[in-house]
Amino acid sequence: MGKTTGSGKAKSKGDATKGGVENVEASAEKGSATSGTGEMSGKAYASEMKKLHVELVKLQEWAKLKGLKVCIVFEGRDGAGKGGTIKAITERVSPRVFRVIALTAPSEREKSQMYVQRYLPYLPSAGEIVIFDRSWYNRAGVERVMGFCTDREAEGFLKVVPAFEKLMVDSGIILRKYWLEVNPEEQTRRLKARIDDGRKIWKLSPMDLKSYSRWYDYSKARDAMFAATDTAWAPWFVARSDDKKRARLNIISHLLESIPYKDVPRAKVKLPKRQKAGDYQEPDYPYRFVPEKH
Question: Domain range for residue 29?
Answer without folding.
Answer: 18-258
